[in-house]
Amino acid sequence: MPFVAPYLDYHAFAPELVLIATFVAVLVADLIGERNKPLLGTIAGLGLLGSMVPVLTLAVADEPVRAMFGGGYVVDNFALTLKALFIIGGYVVILLSTNYIAEGDFWEGEYYLMLLASILGMTMMASSRDLVLIFVALELLSIPAYMLATWRKRDPKSNEAGLKYYLMGVFATAIMLYGMSLIFGVTGQTGLAAIAASPAIAGTAPVITLGVVFVIAGFGFKVSAVPFHTWAPDTYEGAPTPVTAFLSVASKAGGFVALTSLCLVGFATQEEVWQPLFWVLAALSMTVGNLLALRQTNIVRMLAYSSVAQGGYMLAPLAVAGHSIDGRRESIGALVVYLLVYGAMNLGAFAIVIAVARKTRSGEISSYGGLFQYAPGLTVVMTVFVFALAGIPPLGGWFAKFVIFKALVNPGTSAGYALAIVVGVNSVIALFYYARIAQQMWMQPVPDEDRTPIRVPPSLVGALGICCLVTLVLGVLPGLVGEIGDLAELASGR
Amino acid sequence: MLLNQFLLLAAVLFSIGVYGVLARRNGVLVLMSIELILNAVNINLVAFGAYHGTVSGQVFALFVIAVAAAEVGVGLAIVLLLYRNRQSIAVDEVSSMKG
């Protein structure tokens, strides 16, 4: 059989190609000389902005779906939206890192390289519709993240963060691979569309159930769903704070993307298996995450548990996604909108944590006492972020919660109603700990009477501006992202 | 075809690996247990690939081998770092953060 070169659409690959070029540029600039060090962050940031250009041109192009490698690599609206989220999120993380990394005792060049590699893995994950590709993309986004979590080499806490993240991550990946091998064994296919089309996957053989459960458990770790969340608080606390922001937003979103395309495309006929599983994971994540967040005294740890709970809200629409094409479309839309809004508000909250820690050198919530008296700007912005996370109108968070509710209630099943009630109760619980931060900042006295203002570097101001703008605009004009819900290609099981 | 024998071997390896990850304290032995799971996956993939008469199983297995090597490289680096800072690689002693 003669070799036929696969069809390559370079326009569809352009965002990844720009990222790879940026990776090489940072590597070379780091090699050439010591005095290039301050430039590395700028090159990485510009490269990320550059890779947004092809994402935008692809979004306005006429061709809605570009498939390559026999449907293994697909660039559609769903993939493009998430690529934009990963790239902009990555850009904000670079803005957060610039001063943090330069002022600390860190390896700068490699830091940006690892960050870029991880973002490349995420953009690949958004397009992957093949078991092999999903695995490779997952590892490309995870392995650099393990190293980033351990980046403070001499700090035992950072070591601990990296070790826990690594061991749990690799274990989960291994379990997921075993599940994938079973799915491959049943169907003889690795492409998700081919798996869905194979008659064998529609059966009720226990081996299929086992495969699906193992795969979901593996990604449950990535999105830190309870009971696979145990690494999250320790890793978040011990890792450098910009890395924590990156893990809690981008890496989590990567897991959700894979879960969505695996379950809604590949295992579409197995909804009897994954719907109840997502139901339990969502309910547990919300409840356990929120209850544990209530008693935290360290703000990063509190945000870690809050992000576990937020992951629960995002899992919720997947628990009702299997009923109909419309249901799938609505669930995917709700998940994507929530990811976008969550990305903006959570990155913003971490940006404030980094800014405040520049002065207080502390992550305790009590160190936020009286923040309003010496940093009124930061206080107002942080209040916006915590109330957005709590889901108070008119900030972005309420709209995200609203679409989740809508996706849960619309199928009209008792499971959907029950989960909607769980979401509602949890939103009230969450308000307590979010409001506690606001109360500390506005009403408590300054703990050590040190009222010197906080000097916020320009890159942090930029990051805060982007996050604040997105949070506010999406809350006031939700129609801007409402259209994203129309991701028909994925929902119809392509 | 003797597919079931391969699958049985893989299942046993997988179980030993999972037990090792959960029960072992030594960092390097935990990594070795993870390798056992990954090799169980490889046996599964190659056996199923031969059963279905496609090469994608072997290709997948090659990817797993290559990526696992990178993964373990990072893992050993982290364990080495741990040893430098604590003079011990017992993973259960690494628990300064709780709650």
What's the short version?
The complex is a heterodimer of chains A (494) and B (99). Chain A is mostly helical and 494 residues long.
3D structure, described in words:
The complex is a heterodimer of chains A (494) and B (99). Chain A has 494 residues and is mainly α. Chain A has one domain. Helices cover 75% and strands 1% of the residues of chain A. Chain A has 20 helices and 2 strands. Chain A has a two-stranded antiparallel ribbon with strand order 1-2. In chain A, helix 5 runs antiparallel to helix 10. Chain A is globular and about 75 Å long. Chain A starts with 9 loop residues before the first helix and ends with a helix. Chain B has 99 residues and is mostly helical. Chain B has one domain: Helix Hairpins (Orthogonal Bundle), CATH 1.10.287. Chain B is elongated and about 50 Å long. The model of chain B has no long low-confidence stretch (mean pLDDT 90). At the A-B interface, helix 5, helix 6 and helix 9 of A face helix 1, helix 2 and helix 3 of B.
Radius of gyration of chain B: 17 Å
Q: What is the subunit organization of this protein? A: heterodimer
Give the amount of beta strand of chain B, in percent. under 5%
Which architecture of chain B would the CATH scheme give at its second level? Orthogonal Bundle
User: Which spans of chain B of ≥5 residues are poorly predicted at pLDDT below 50?
Assistant: none
SSE order of chain A, one letter for each helix or strand: HHEEHHHHHHHHHHHHHHHHHH
Number of domains of chain B: 1
Radius of gyration of chain A: 22 Å
Residues in helices of chain B, as a percent range = over 70%
What features would you highlight for this structure?
heterodimer, A: 494 residues, mainly alpha, two-stranded antiparallel ribbon, B: mainly alpha, Helix Hairpins, 3 helices
